[in-house]
Write a structure and sequence with these properties.
With 680 residues, this protein is of the alpha/beta class. 40% of the residues lie in helices and 18% in strands. The protein contains 24 helices and 30 strands. The chain is flat and about 105 Å long.
Amino acid sequence: MKSIALITGSRDTANALLRQLNVFLDNQVVLNVYIIDEGTALPLEEDLQVFSSRTLYDEVANQYGKMSKPQIIGNRTVNYDVLDELVSIPHGTRVLLVNDVEESAVEVLDALLEIGLDQMAFTVYYPGCDVDVNNFEIAVTPGEAQYVPNHISQVIDIGSRVFDFRTIAKILSHLNLLENSSGSFSKMYLEKIIKIAKGLAVSKSELIKQSENLERVINSFNAGLLMYDKNHKVVVFNDILKQLLRINKYTIVGSALSSVIYNKRLLAFLLDENGDSRYDLTIDGNEYVVSKFKITNNEMTCASIKSSKIHSLSIDGRESAIKKGHVAKYGLDDIIGHSEAVFKLKAIIKKLSGTDMTILIQGESGTGKELTASAIHKESARADAPFLAVNFSALPDDLIESELFGYVEGAFTGARKGGKVGLFEEANGGTIFLDEIGDVSLKVQSRLLRVLEEREIMPIGSGEIKPIDVRIIAATNKDLAELVTDKKFREDLYYRLKMGYIQLQPLRQRKEDIPELFEHMMCAMASSRVSYTDELMHKLVSYEWTGNIRELKNTITYMLAVRESDCLGLVDLPDTSYFGNLNEDTSSAVFSESHRSNQIYLNEEQFYFLEKIHHLLKHDKAISRITLSAESLNGAFKRSENQVRRILKQLDELGVISLSKGRKGISLTAMGDQIIQHKK
């Protein structure tokens, strides 16, 4: 009986391919499995060697040299048996395609597109990549669910990829089994392809029909819009509705209405076909007006939902606000970084923006307080209304009151004819951002307290009280609690402002965001494509940035102005007096001298694994990709076995470790040991 050596990288891949081959070989061939990541010895005496991928073949060939037996390098595709869930995802839905390394993720994407699953907007994601995952609620992964971001609610695991039609045909042909198996072999694959094709056709047909029927209606509404069919299945809903009711941004069309609307009173109103067509609703202290009516021969119901408290601006009013600069310039996408601090900040912004509570933002100068306030406004139901920013440190005390509250004609000497509308009144229906609130006088604090308590203002020189509907967001770089203790800030105002609270982290506490911030700012400011050296980034990450993001931006502006090439380096940095301690190496990255007096640079990830190798060697423990990957799971750099393979290759090329043939041949070189000792 003939034999096959099936050579794979991991146990999961081996199991998937073994199940597939057993179906076609039907006990006519002996199958022996060799799993590289488990250190399986490779006698390879079988009649045919089948490799799960080109990458794996290259690795085995490099370590064991030329092999005498015939080989087939497999091409792999997605398993058609597990694609039913993917077919039902609506056209245009944003989906995160998750795998452990970029190369494997791209291969899976290509396989999905090749079989016609192109109705979704896929984005490739793998650990360490530069992708904002906050706007995704669905993830697809080929057996790597541990790398899916925690917030994603729907994960579709399509399992390990299997051999494609051509690879199976090659294996059968080599073993002289193709002729006998060709009928059942072709039939099996055709059945799977037809099943997927039917699902795609039905899905796309329904989407086209819905699109033609609803496009005219959805575009005519300027309120939250929800449409559902006679079976109470969701057909469509727009962004305004998602914002008002905080519905999951990527709720699947076709879901039951009861799984989308959680408010029982609202759900009862929507499901009651014979009741009123208008309903007043209060959710979390916010008031809404809900209206519904039948369309398309009573086959569907349309419901509109809008806030009764917040008045939308007219077109003229909106244009006036834009001309005056009373608009929010920044949103969530302008908050750059993937650190835990940034992730938590975006999460709290989304939660607070769904309420109308007053918010206090505290943070050092340059940490992005106005950006945060702007993002809160743009995420809120007031997004289309004015956003006004007032910096108290830039206004003298005698001018603050007239600017905030306005005045009537003749209120004081020099008052404008006809008076002046105050900023609170101009912001009516929207948000006012009071920056540097810690600099305001006790007198103005008293008037601000009245606004917060009564939601009304009185212009200077007027006896008329005007009600206002304004959300207040205040910010400071001072310790207001300490100012309260020193009797320099009113305690009652402090607690009124601190209903909602955000503490912004300084840049030195989230240094992992510096490379991304640097590249983002360079792209925005440079007139052409500009790169940078590793040495420069090392210096930038090592600096404490007491001026935070503003100081980083100023530094980039300077370097772009004085650069002599399209690659920024240490020579382009400002004079050392500008930075103080920038030239002191305080980074966790490592520099050391090589035998050629050149510098060897290890980034933090590389040094992390160099330390792991040193630790394992010191304690006489076996070293492999499996052990290194397992060791990393509780540390700062969680890496899969494939990713560890890449890092080890980098360290070997840098000359700090030695990868000899065999699975346990990892050792530190003299250079690697020198770097470890230098770090100590």
